[in-house]
Design the sequence.
């Protein structure tokens, strides 16, 4: 168990091992993709690859995310985005999972996350991810407490049964809004 140093006075320090390990959840909307007219499978376009590379690279240098599980929807653009994050973070393979498609009910992942304590990354689509964030932070899938963006990563942390925003980073932070 982790030990937390608590300073009692200027000269006296003792350890308190009552600190709980908090689960982190990384939510990422896939990078920008080609249109269905350009390619029916909708892979990431050049901007989507660049944006995801920047976000993943920045986080690998400063935050060093270590999700033990990385899931994607199965759509090519989400799979490519998930693989780019996994490679930048040295996290191994990613897995396709149900419940991450645009129209899926976010309650599925609310239930799945309640059964796990492992740091997890979900790479998916709007409006599903936005509804999941509303459900986790506000207990209402119709609320939008955070505006998610392509290739952005929102890190939520669970303390006991409450989810909180730890940080959020997205590509426009690197080079401004278009």
Sequence:
């Amino acid at each position: 168990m982790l030990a937390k140093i608590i300073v009692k006075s200027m000269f006296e320090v003792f350890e308190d091992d009552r600190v709980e390990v908090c689960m982190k959840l990384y939510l990422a909307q896939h990078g920008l993709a080609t249109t269905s007219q350009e390619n029916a499978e909708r892979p990431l376009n050049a901007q989507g690859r660049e944006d995801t590379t920047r976000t993943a690279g920045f986080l690998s240098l400063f935050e060093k995310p270590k999700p033990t599980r990385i899931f994607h929807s199965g759509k090519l653009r989400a799979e490519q985005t998930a693989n780019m994050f996994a490679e930048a973070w040295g996290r191994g393979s990613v897995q396709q999972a149900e419940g991450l498609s645009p129209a899926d009910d976010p309650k599925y992942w609310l239930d799945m996350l309640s059964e796990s304590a492992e740091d997890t990354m979900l790479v998916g689509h709007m409006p599903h991810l936005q509804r999941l964030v509303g459900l986790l932070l506000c207990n209402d899938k119709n609320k939008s407490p955070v505006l998610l963006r392509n290739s952005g990563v929102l890190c939520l942390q669970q303390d006991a049964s409450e989810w909180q925003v730890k940080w959020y980073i997205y590509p426009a932070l690197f080079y401004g809004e278009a």
Remarks:
- Residues 46-62 form the longest helix (17 residues).
- Helices lie at 46-62, 76-89, 107-114, 128-138, 172-175.
- Residues 22-175 form a domain with the Rossmann fold fold (CATH 3.40.50.1240).
- Residues 1-19 have pLDDT under 50 and may be disordered.
